[in-house]
Design brief:
By secondary structure, the chain is α+β, with helices and mostly antiparallel strands. It contains 7 helices and 12 strands.
């Protein structure tokens, strides 16, 4: 077996392997969206260090890593690893990847040790009335500039169970999210939605979505950056109800796809994703 480094002369070969490996995702796209698939992979070839693994003339795997430094958390660059479903041999990556552990891959990949999965919803198939067990004791609203400070307080770190290191979460992620929320109504950075108890004006939950592209296809989508529910209202279908309301509004705005990453041990979020009709699009694996 031999890793072959990307050169422009190899581009048709790389494109063919990637499309063939990702064909199930490709077939889920509209005719218009399929053009983004090629645009996305051309960007990967330009911005990443890329290789294919050849076994007696048959390509078995693709691997890439960004060659530029992280600048913005919303555009966090990722390593990519695609492996044919029938590939069973030990996977020895090129020397350039010796310090890399985390890779974005297909959800049905033979690679193990999945750390998180990206779940998507195709909004044209979403029907609000089909979501079961909605919380009928809350009202939901699209954020239009009102109660910004209350929502910023709701986002405060002391109300959260951060799933990332405290320093990053408190010093970068959270201030960015609060800034986006406060600027959103003037600059349309994304879409914010909040929930209150019926006959109350106090926000008890908030979610924020903004522009992204779906992993492995480059399809335009909205990424759910954050969902937060006050501690005393958790496990009451508040987050599911708020997201169902948001999906319905986003569908009316002619948005096609919503995406969000869920850690493998977050069982409640997985159940919530299933209730909303989301399905696995890609995974992140950690190699030993």
């Amino acid at each position: 077996m031999k890793w072959i480094e990307f050169e422009e002369k190899h581009r048709p070969r790389f494109e063919s392997f990637i499309k063939d490996t990702c064909i199930d995702l490709f077939n889920k796209l509209s005719a218009f969206e399929k053009s983004y698939f090629y645009h996305y992979w051309l960007k990967i070839f330009n911005e990443h260090h890329c290789f294919v693994l050849s076994d007696q003339g048959v390509d078995k795997a693709f691997v890439s890593k960004p060659q530029w430094r992280v600048k913005h958390w919303i555009r966090w660059p990722e390593n990519i690893l695609l492996v044919k479903a029938d590939f069973l041999a030990p996977l020895n990556l090129p020397a350039q990847f010796k310090d890399e552990l985390n890779f974005r891959t297909l959800p049905q990949s033979p690679l193990k040790n999945t750390s998180q999965t990206a779940y998507v919803c195709l909004l044209e198939n979403f029907q609000y009335q089909d979501v079961s067990n909605l919380n009928t004791d809350i009202d939901c609203f699209e954020l239009k500039g009102e109660r910004i400070d209350e929502i910023a307080t709701l986002l405060d770190a002391k109300n959260r169970h951060a799933d990332v290191s405290a320093g990053f979460y408190e010093k970068y992620y959270l201030p960015e999210l609060i800034q986006y929320t406060k600027l959103n109504c003037k600059q349309q950075i994304g879409f914010g939605f909040y929930a209150t108890k019926i006959k109350s004006s106090t926000p008890i939950a908030y979610c924020f979505y903004n522009g992204f592209e779906m992993p492995l296809t480059g399809t335009p989508c909205l990424l759910v950056n954050d969902i937060v529910v006050k501690k005393e209202f958790r496990r009451q279908k508040v987050a599911t109800t708020l997201q169902a309301f948001a999906y319905d509004k986003l569908k009316q705005a002619n948005i096609s796809w919503v995406l969000g990453n869920i850690k493998e041990d977050n069982i409640s979020s997985k159940k919530q994703a299933m209730a909303l009709g989301r399905f696995a699009w890609s995974s992140t694996v950690k190699l030993e």
